[in-house]
């Protein structure tokens, strides 16, 4: 984290490091399955630009990152993630396209 902050232009560092003994092929396989299910549902969801979102699942916790066009789209994405089988929690780092933290508005 300290090294990341030293890079010119870095405005935010998110540290979600997890330390536990749940590693294993079964957990990894389930996490990949969860992410795949969410991505598939996002592609089919009307009003969601799935290309604008990254989905990462670690130990059944889904991390959503990306840029939402509006609050409705973001709500759809987080709802889809939270209602997918085996998901324990959803952590969203997605932002709205006009969020001032992005540094500029388009």
Structure summary:
This protein has 106 residues and is an alpha/beta fold. Helix content is 34%, strand content 19%. The chain has three helices and four strands.
Proportion of residues in extended strands: 15-25%
What is the radius of gyration? 15 Å
Major beta sheet summary: 4 strands, mixed
The geometry reads as flat
The averaged pLDDT comes out at 88
Query: Tally of extended strands?
Result: 4
Question: What share of residues is helical?
Answer: 25-40%
Helices and strands: which structural class? Answer: alpha/beta
- Helix and strand run: HHEEHEE
Distance between the termini: 30 Å
In DSSP terms (H or I, runs of 4 or more residues), the helix count works out at 3
Ranges with pLDDT <50 over ≥5 residues?
Answer: none
Descriptive overview:
With 106 residues, this protein is α/β, with parallel strands linked by helices. It has helices at residues 2-5, 25-44, 71-82; strands at residues 53-58, 61-68, 89-92, 95-96. Strands 1, 2, 3 and 4 form a four-stranded mixed β-sheet that branches. The protein is flat and about 40 Å long.
Blueprint (SSEs and pairs):
Layout: H1 2-5, H2 25-44, E1 53-58, E2 61-68, H3 71-82, E3 89-92, E4 95-96
Give me some keywords for this one:
alpha/beta; four-stranded mixed beta sheet
